[in-house]
Amino acid sequence: MTEQVAPEAQRPNVAGAVETTDEVASHLHPAGSFDVDDHPMPNGREEIWRFTPLRRLAGALDRQPTGAGAVDYRVEAPGEVAVASLAPGQAPRGTVLVPSDRAAAIASAETADALHVKVPAEVVVADPVAVTVQAGGGRSNGHVVLDVGPFAKVTLLLDHRGTGVHTANLEVVVGDGAEVTVVSVQDWDRDAVHLGQHEALVGRDASYRHIVVSLGGDVVRLNSNVRYAGTGGGADLYGLYFADAGQHLEHRLFVDHNAPHTRSHVDYKGALQGRDARTVWVGDVLIRKIAEQIETYEINRNLVLTDGAQADSVPNLEIETGEIVSAGHASATGRFDDEQLFYLQSRGITEEDARRLVVRGFFAGLLERIGIETVRDRLTEAIERRLAEVGV
């Protein structure tokens, strides 16, 4: 456990203040930079890269521009939502997200025009704003900025499809009192590689929900980060992932409680089946010295369906103050619960159907949180197909 002390002139002396120092006191979240050269090519011994199969990234960490026809963005948004573009250095681009690894720095540097989705203050958007990222092969980069004004409400669906090697960033500004939900679906073709960073700044008394669903791709690695712009903000980070034989799905989360009276809850669930299926979940919550009276909890659960699959789960808490309401974490990885199977079979359900019911129940709560019926139905069907492939 480390302690970060701000200079005397920067130390806040009023309740409700936000940590002013830019230095991040976390061993799992190094200081960010927009300069690609500040992020050396990893060798696998670095803490933030030690789980990632670097040899399978197909050039994702080489600085390359987006190829012709490599990616297409389709946006469906109601009239009250403004859709435009932002050049590098044009606010609010770069005001929230500072690249924390080489992939994010490349995505930022090689995206000339970021997609800017702006929701004006006090506007309630009834239908989801849908952004479909359709990759057509080759190398591509991207950057999306969701800018939500005070007391507005919106849901963004970020849907990834197709094939190729894609590095991308998502930057979310959550205005004071706003309610924002982001659903990011990784439904890539089997050979795709996707490295991404999602960063949110949650305003005073605002609510932010970030939901990740990863099913497709050869290698998918997402960094999902949150910090606070004022007191009273809340963040809920949910995730669902299902790895098949040979897939590598990696999710890394960082919640920076840099303001008092804030809240966070992290709940990720994963299933694995097939030889060399691999999932990685690394959760880190930093509670700074100033972040008094916060509440946080993170949990990761993994269900291993067959032999030959491996799940790594690393929860972390870095606490710099004892003046908190609650803080905890948990992690569990295991096979089917024999008692559940016995209970179902004792009532005339076959073993095969019983196993499917257990898996459905395992994911049911997170699927319900998605809130977009068409997406929920599509993902349920995808999970059913995977279970049928190996006769689970």
Q: How would you describe this protein?
A:
There is one protein chain. This protein has 4 helices and 16 strands. It is mainly beta and 392 residues long. The chain has 2 domains: 300 residues, no CATH class; 56 residues, no CATH class. Helix 2 crosses helix 3 and helix 3 packs antiparallel against helix 4. It starts with 70 loop residues before the first strand and ends with a helix.
Overall number of domains = 2
Radius of gyration: 21 Å
Largest sheet: 16 strands, mixed
User: Which structural class best describes the helix and strand composition?
Assistant: mainly beta
Overall shape: it is: globular
The residue fraction in helices comes out at 10-25%
Write down the overall mean pLDDT.
90
Count of DSSP strands: 16
The arrangement of helices and strands along the chain is EEHEEEEEEEEEEEEEEHHH
Strand content: 35-45%
Q: What is the CA-CA span between the terminal residues?
A: 43 Å
